[in-house]
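**Backbone shape codes:**
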Amino acid sequence: MSRKHRHEEHEEHVDESWLIPYADLLTLLLALFIVLYSMNSVDVKKFEEMSKAFSVALSTGSGVLTESSIVKSGEDDGKKQDEAGGIIDSKDDSKEQTQDQTAEEKARKAIMEQEQKDLEDLKKKVDAYIKKNGLTTDLETKLNLSQLMITISDNALFAPAQASVKPESKALAVAIGKMLQQYPDYQVIVSGHTDTTPISNVFFKSNWDLSSMRAIRFMDILLENKQLKPERFSAIGYGEYRPVADNKTAAGKSKNRRVEVSIMHSYSDETNPQSLAVTK
């Protein structure tokens, strides 16, 4: 019986040498995309060196990235693209912003001038009322570019240690309300002040209470005028902590006991310290 010889099949080896240049090509493409991604702002010297490296690698004799595609750091032709891809001149945009700011400043200045004129007119009316009614010792007005302040002594409004406006003094609050009626768009702050003499009774725990209640009671009479806007009014009490004179003398204490009606500017010239100078 003949012996059969079994021949093992030889496995063929596939030629995979093509994978090496293919992998190199993919690596170069990846590097190219990275460069394109970062080319919005590049270092020119490094860009040129990279271009030469690509030229050598691909053996083409010329760079894969041309100088025309270089965007140099710090250089700007004054143009940019909008969302639709159109070209916007940033210089024109800056010019428009400057013009807008200039127009806004002009409008703000015009408002300040008009407000100052309004408050000057109001001051004249209050001063005329004071002179006509012989109240020069009880009322005074002060005007600056921040506010018009009408100061009323406590004797003209209240009995000692009381917060209810005296019946004969109600006409004063009504008259001021009528004058304010002609200027309805200003913020008005009514503030109460006392001297350092302490108070503690069943009605008022301290000078804080007394000064606050006096401010509120006076504001109540102002707002009886339905032409005024309550949302533009506020009342506050300062107690003895905003004195305008020395509390060591009777005259000083008398000056410190007061109610102030402040008609506020919407704008004030904060850059000019002299704008806050008081004009009596």
Summary: The two ends are 142 Å apart (CA to CA).
